[in-house]
Every structure is written in structure tokens, then in C-alpha cells.
Structures
1.
Amino acid sequence: MADILTTTAGAPVADNQNSLTAGPRGPVLLEDYKLLEKLAHQNRERIPERVVHAKGWGAFGTLTITNDITKYTIAKVFEPGTKTELLARFSTVAGEAGAADAERDVRGFALKFYTSQGNWDLVGNNTPVFFVRDPLKFPDFIHTQKRHPKTNMRSPTAMWDFWSLSPESLHQVTILMSDRGLPKTPTNMNGYGSHTYSFWNAAGERYWVKFHFKTLQGHSYYTNAEAADVIGKSRESYQAALFGGIEKGEFPKWELQVQIMPELDAHKTPYNPFDLTKVWPHTDYPVIDVGILELNRNAENYFNEIEQAAFSPSNVVPGIGFSPDKMLQARIFSYADAHRHRIGTHYEALPVNRPHTAVHTYHKDGALNFRPNPTNPDAYYEPNSFNGPREDPAVAEPPLKISGDAAHYNHRDGNDDYGQVTALFNLFDAGQKSRLFLNIAEAMYGIPDDIAERQIGHFEKVHPDYAAGVREALSHVTKAQAADTARQQAAAAE
Ligand code: NDP
């Protein structure tokens, strides 16, 4: 027999088809609380959409450690043989919650590991670098990806204006416009922690670390034309692929690898190893296999477990630390702040965000605090004489050494924004290059000439073939678009 329908207060509902009215023709009586409750709930079904990474797809799974890296870190999640439950959420960056999945955009690759020492979140992307290296530029950058204040449309002019005035973006722009900028599904792409983090070991030695998750499904991508076709048929192609695959028992996997840099090497590398627009060349810092990440369980309720999932780089565990990367430091603040705004003060008490270990804080009250009292209710402040939770000096992080004078450093000085892009460009075969040129030309179509020229000047510094290829593709795109416009005008005149 079906359950009895109730109000949110648990009282049985006698009639869910007809509101309470004064006679057969109305009006509705104000005392129809059940109607009021239903309407009030509907009005509150949305929480603020994420300003970035609004459209997402997620699933649960496990990380299994197959190799021993305990000489670098005391984090228990990395002990050989350890299996840790996790949640992954993939996303596009710019589109709103209803945007089509198969759009050319960077993909978020956010992971929450429910470790035996609390939650460790690694909130990365499918690219190893980013468009800017200074958080002061991040809100402006995102404004160029979102809608124009007057037209309410996306603005290629704004995008290329910002990028051409910010040459540090060139590395990420090249990846975005290459094949890897439009993966077929979330399982056909790599994930990168992107920032430099740190490890520390039992001897208190610190190492800098980069995290990589290499897809075991293989890289697979759409061209712009193929993606337009997919979007014409389904706006939810990623959700269908990820959710549908896991329902069918096809569990996607990634190999977790790390690059390790001894602490003092950071002074020696020709590039700033904490600059988010740079990678660490593999020949200098080879990747080390660590384990296998597998996704094997869909959420039961998308809103509860994926929309309300709250990832933050501030969630680290003993053995894993931060680095001087300025972008990382800003995200440590802004992600937790976003979730307090989006979900509420106690967002980490929600089942999907709650660690699988005990939580003992002295935070008190606040909206929707449903955490129980401390074991001894007299121990509700600290320090106390009632055996309340105590700090554990054993997990103290070794000091992060910093030095220097506080100033607004221009991080463009002495920084090569082109060399690593040249290395990437040289990896592309002829087909990859011609698709890169076409994708850029299509994205640039219609922007003012001076902005296009400034951007082509950056391509020239990467490789003369890069600039020449984009120039040629632009002339084809312009001719094709002009012919298209003429056809449309002729058709309209008939
Ligand atoms: P390597 O030749 O050792 O590494 C090249 C790496 O580039 C590959 O391992 C692969 O990364 C990635 N790659 C290969 N083909 C493509 C492609 N079509 N699109 C995007 N990435 C691709 O040289 P370096 O380590 O010196 O790197 C050279 C350039 O490769 C870098 O400047 C950077 O642009 C790019 N790259 C480097 C990464 C790194 O961590 N060193 C990571 C990703 C890209 P993966 O194995 O991660 O798939």
C-alpha cells in the first residue's frame, strides 16, 4: 500500500486535488495551509545558481591506492591499498544551469574524497593551466565569459579583448581551442588539480605536488560542427553519457598521477612553479602513478547530492597543504564563501558534504544547525574543563616558508607567457593544428580588427605558423559567413 501523503509537519493530507474554497466557485480560504505550503515550497525550489560552473554532472565512486608515495606525505588517503569513497562533479564554466552540455568551454573536475581524516577536496579542471595567474583578474575574466550588460548575449569582443590584453591567458586559450576544448563526454577527458599543492611527510619535509587524473576511456572530442549537431538533438549529452553509462554498469576510470618537486627546487626552475598558467614539464618532473579513481554509483537525487554538493580547495587533510599560488589562496576563501551564500552557514552538515568521520567543532547555532551537542553539553566553548574536543599537535603542518616584501608585484615581469604554448603547439599534428585555427577563427568572427590583430600578435610570438594559420582560417570563415548572410538576405527578400 502507498504511504499516506503528509504535510511537512507530518500530518496526513485528506485532499491533494482540490483547494479549500468557500463554495464550488471559490474563492480560496486563507486557512488552506496545505495549498499555502505547496506554493511557498515551489517558490523556494531553487538555490542561487553557481556564478561559475553552474551546469554540472556528477557521480560517486572510489579512489584505490596502488603505489606507495608515503615517503612524500602522511595523508592516510595515500596509504597503499587504501580505498576511499568520493564524489566527482564535472561542469562547464560559463553556461547557466540550463546550458547545453556539448559547448566548447573548460570543464570543471571537482572531487571530494571522504577520507578517514576528514574531507579532502581537489577542485580542478580538465586543463592543467588557467587563463589568469592573479585572482584580482578573475572576476573581470568571468565577466567577459558571461552576458553583456546591454545585449544580454555572450560577447566574443569582450573575450578576445580581455585575452589579447592578458597574454598569460594564451596557454589556456590554446588548449580551449584545441581538440581537448570540447570532449565528447566527461569520461573522455583528463582532470588536473591545476594548482601546485604541497605534501609533507613524517620527517616534516615538504614537497610541492601537482595532481593529474588521466582518462582510461581515451581522449575523444567533438568538432564545433559535430557539437552543433549534438546540441540540436540533446542539450543533456553529458548527463546522458555519465548517468546512463553508470546505470549500465560501465564504470569510468582515471589513473591518478602526481608530479613531485623538492621544496628548494622552487627557487631554481626557470618558470614560477606556483604560476597557474604554467605546467611542470614532464621531463623535469616525471609523473608517478598513485592509484585508480573509479565512478560507480549515481546520485539518487540530483538536487540533493550534485546541485548541493559543495567543493572547496580549503578542505585539505594532514599531509596535504597549500602553496604560494595566489589563485589557490583566493579560491580557499571564495569557494567556501560561495557555498555559505548559496546553501547556508551549515552547508557541510548536509549528507553529501558531511565527512564520513566525526565532526567536533565549537561553532554554535546558525540557520539549520542540526548537528548534535558535544558529547558533554557543558563543553560548548574552548578551552574548557569538561573534556571537550582538543586540538592535536601531532597533525601540525611544518611551516610554509615565505619571504619577501609586501607589494603589488607585476607578475608579467620576467615571465615567459609563450614558451610553454610553443611546446604545446609543436605537439599538435597537421589535423590538430588546422582544427585549432578554425576553432579560433570561428570564435573570433566579427570582433574589431584591432583586437584580432593584437591577439594574432601573441600567436605570432608562439609560432609564425600559428598566426598564419589563424589568419588564413579567419579569411575562410569571413567569406563563408558573408556568403551565408547574403543567402539569408536573398531568401528574406524573396
Ligand atoms: P611532454 O611531451 O612530456 O608532455 C606533453 C603532454 O601534453 C602530454 O603528456 C599530454 O598531457 C599533453 N598533450 C598531448 N597531446 C595534447 C593535446 N593534443 N592537447 C593538449 N595536451 C596534450 O612535454 P611537457 O611536459 O614539456 O609539456 C609540453 C606541453 O604539453 C606543455 O607546455 C603543455 O602545454 C602541455 N601539457 C603538459 C602537461 C604537463 O603536466 N607537463 C599536461 C598537459 C599538457 P597528459 O599526459 O596530461 O594528457
2.
Amino acid sequence: MKAAVVRAFGEPLVIEERPDPEPGPGQVLIRVEASGLCHTDIHAAHGDWPVKPRPPFVPGHEGVGVVERLGEGVERLAVGQRVAVPWLGSACGRCEHCLSGWETLCESQVNTGYGCDGGFAEKMLARADFAQAVPDGITPSDAAPLTCAGVTTYKALKVAGVRPSQLVAISGVGGLGHLAVQYAKIAGATVAAIDVTDEKLELASALGADLLIDARKDDPAEVLKRHGGAHAAIALAVNESAFVAAYGGLRRGGKLVMVALPAHGTIAVPIFDTVLNGTSVIGSIVGTRQDLAEVYRLHAAGRTRVIRQTRPLDSVNESIDEVLRAQIPARIVFEM
Ligand code: NAD
Ligand code: ZN
Ligand code: ZN
């Protein structure tokens, strides 16, 4: 099988021919049909974060495909079934986080395309319990971006507790942001979309954003404040100054939900303002299996649109460059 492999941080990925992996107990072998390129895969390939993957590894946590073989003891899935393999590759199922509906916080979790090989390949392994069934009626190339970009932003809006009539700022209308705009609209919010390219702002508008803020020309904090301030701001841009602007645009009682993960990212949170304004700053990491099932259900019901370009896996390095230059309409999906 063909796989795109990170051999060293910061180096181009190498397309390799590898033997098909063998499914162990509790695992399945999947023939990958489509695999989305998340900005997280780029952070992984660059070794951007304090906890690093160990090269050589295969990135990709939006892999969608068909179960080809079952490992010992797998009863939950059947050969021929379409599944997706999200970032949460496995969790222990026994700790306080797993037991309280927060499996995404499990300290024993293994992350797909980071702690084990991911979906940038023609075949991949998955833990059967964490491979998500993709409902009929969702194409593999639509299911792929929903598997991380979708579930992550759907969860971020849940964490923000967004209600109808609230003003929600979506900072960064990339792979994640284009779905965040749609979930915020579904939640009944008025949506302010912030980005730094005309194309992304046009896309946000086409997807229902009510207010467009071009951070090259205007200070998003000022514009949001002029509209009364945001009840919630979802920080999806890989840029610390965008976090600061989103924080600054909150109204009293507002919530900044941190989702993007810029390398070595920090922001200074002013204590006085945070206390007096009753501001919340919350981190949000992907979503649970249940969140992902809800994301698929919304899409199958025709309530979301996935904006993506499909490409062959061989284009992985050019595709990464284009994502870094923000030249992609929303998501790139590799079709195998
Ligand atoms: P992306 O590159 O597709 O999107 C980023 C967007 O931000 C682009 O549209 C870009 O034009 C815009 N942008 C850049 N500078 C900006 C600025 N100053 N103000 C406003 N917008 C600006 O990336 P993505 O795949 O959507 O991922 C975004 C981030 O989220 C990455 O850091 C990724 O690792 C992270 N992520 C986090 C989670 C999580 O669970 N917390 C899950 C998935 C991805
Ligand atoms: Zn656990
Ligand atoms: Zn991702």
C-alpha cells in the first residue's frame, strides 16, 4: 500500500510503498477512500507542539474508508462497512474523564496520525470501538472533513453554550471555521466571521455569516464591540494576535473558546478585565464519539455543506504549502 510518511520534522513527506498492516485484537483494517488534510497534520509534520509524534509516522485523522478485515474479537463492525477514524483513536474507557462523557480528556488516549499511523495511506488500522460508522448518504469526501473539522467546531459551540440571538465570532474561516459558521447558524446565533483573505470572507458570507470582519483592515475587537461584543468567540486562526483580538471583542460574561494550536502559542490574559467582566477562557479539544454521530446526522439531514477540493495523495506536500498560504477554499481531501 501507498502511504505519505513524515520521516523528519519540517521535511517534505515521503510517499512510500509499505506492506498492508495486520489488524490485531480489537482492531480493523480499513481500505481508505478519502482523507482530509487538517492543519493539525501540518503541526504534526513540523513537530510544532510540546508533545511530539515520533517519526517515521503517517499523519491523517480524517480518514474514511471501508472495513476490509476484522481483528480477533471485533463484533461491532462488519466487513464492507464504511467508517471514519478520528483524532481520538482510542481512550481507556475507565478513567473519570471517560466515565463522565469526556473521553477526549482521557490521559491514556492514543491519537490517530500522531500516536499511531493515520489516514494518509491506502490502508490503515483502527480500534473498532473508536471507528465511527458513516451513515449512508454521506460521501467519503464529505465525511472526511466532518471527522475532525466538523466535530471540533460542533463541540466548541456546545462548550460555548451558544443560544439563539447571541453574537458569535468565528475567528478563521478555514477547514474548521467554514463548518463553525454553519453550526453557529444552526444554533440560532448571529455570526461574525473574521479572516484575512477576500475568498474566505466571501465563503463565510455564502455559508450564512451575518457580519464579515477583514482583520487586515479592521481591528476585530473594535468591530465586535461596536456590535455590543460577542457572547462567544471561537479562536480557529493559527495566529496569537487573532486570539487577542477575539478576547478583546467579547462582551461582559463572554467566552473565548481556544481551539487553534499555534506553535509555542501564548497570550497574556489581563486579570482585571477578566475578573470584572466575568470572562471565561476555555480550551476545547475535538469531540466525543457521540458528538461525531450528531455531526454526521446533521450532515445527512442536509443541514451542513462541506467545502472541499479533492486531490491525489501524491500532492500532499504542495497541498500543505497551499494550506499554510491560506489558498484553499476550506479543506483539501485526498482521494485514494
Ligand atoms: P486552516 O489553515 O484551514 O484555517 C485557518 C484560517 O485562519 C484560514 O482561513 C486563515 O486565512 C485564517 N487566518 C489566518 N490568520 C488570521 C487572522 N489573523 N485572523 C483571522 N483569521 C486568520 O486550519 P484548520 O485546519 O481550520 O485548523 C485551525 C487550527 O485548529 C490549527 O491550529 C489546528 O491544529 C487546530 N485544531 C484544533 C483542534 C482541537 O481539537 N482543538 C482540532 C482540529 C484542529
Ligand atoms: Zn480514560
Ligand atoms: Zn484535525
